Amino acid sequence: MTPELLKGKKGIIFGALNSQSIAWKVAEQAHAAGAEFVLTNAPVAMRMGEINELAAKCGGAKVIPADATNVDDLKHLVQGAMDQFGGKIDFVLHSIGMSPNVRKNKHYTEVNYNWYQQTMDVSAISLHKTLAVCKDLDALNEWGSVVALTYIAAQRIFPDYNDMADAKSLLESITRSFGYHYGVAKKVRVNTISQSPTVTTAGSGVKGFDEFISYSEQMSPLGNADAESCANYCIAMFSDLTKYVTMQNLFHDGGFSNTGVTQQVIEKFKAE
Fold first, then answer.
1. Which of 27-36, 119-128, 191-200, 243-252 bottoms out in mean pLDDT, i.e. has the lowest?
2. Whole-angstrom Cα distance, residue 86 to residue 209?
3. 20 to 30 Å CA-CA from 61: which of 7, 72, 76, 83?
4. Can you give the residue ranges of every domain in the chain?
5. Which residues make Cβ contacts (< 8 Å) with residue 83, sequence separation at least 6?
6. All residues at 6 or more sequence positions from 85 whose CB lies less than 8 Å from its CB, including other chains
7. CATH 3.40.50.300 is the classification of domain 10-267
8. Are 193 and 149 in contact (CB under 8 A)?
9. Which has the higher per-residue pLDDT, 173 or 1?
């Protein structure tokens, strides 16, 4: 990471659970680029994960627990970050996703609707709530950057991705809609990054995940983008080098999103 690319910038990073997490890699790269930030996750996730270890690695970053579906928690988090830094912040990473239906192996056509609503709230509506709290508290500096992580299942069917596909579609719609209003009001930019399938605690819970990673690797001209490369892209989006990029869904997938078929895949279907 380019030293000092984010020098002087302050932020909030949601979703670092362990060293497999993309958010964990973003925190490491943001620290290397000169940023300061607050780390946050839901209290239950913090008990499961290793966020305090990450905080120590990142110069003693402050950790503030918050349930991203709870507006009062988010207000406490955002105000706490501003108090920590003595002013407004410059970037937010939303790296949050969870589906009880996926965890419980419920087929998409037979989902539990209470769980479905929970999937939407945690994985997508939490972004709207975060943006609304930031706007209400006037927490982000002009030209601030908010990035949320998404997946191409928002546009194409991947059967085992289940109701998370619907959540990602909503996440991307919120990005466009809130991105417009926040841009007009405060010149804050809001984008999603559509990442390659990546080995994380959340991703590994999807049925057939290992097989799909192999397929995606063979369908991507550059191969799958790894978590560290995604972190680098996030850092670029937080920096002043991307000041006029907003309301976009940015594919970071080695070319998978624009590839119909590859010779490598065709070879697997040739007659013996």
1. 191-200
2. 43
3. 72
4. 10-267
5. none
6. 10, 36
7. no
8. yes
9. 173
